[in-house]
Model the fold of this input.
Amino acid sequence: QVQLVESGGGLVQPGGSLRLSCVVSGSSFSFNVMGWYRQAPGKQRELVATITSAGSTNYGDSVKGRFTISGDNAKNTAYLQMDSLKAEDTAVYYCYVWIAFTNTGYWGQGTQVTVSS
Done:
């Protein structure tokens, strides 16, 4: 059974930084896409960033230039470096992986990020 465990969330002041990690276990197949999505209260879940197994990245417009996604295939881990954080970045951040061989996506349980002074 595929499991995703996120860590690194917390409370940070505006302008600060956080680094999220997502460790994936339990899959017999390689991950084709890993990514992060977020959901703020009363809003729909939105794309933050994704990275393919080939290293191609994609970012949501609101985080471009401030967030950086990276992956370590050997460790089955994805990272999200978040800099210049703003109050509007406050949300639950969810890790996501997609396995092309089985055409299946999996979600983590989410980690809270709160940006406030």
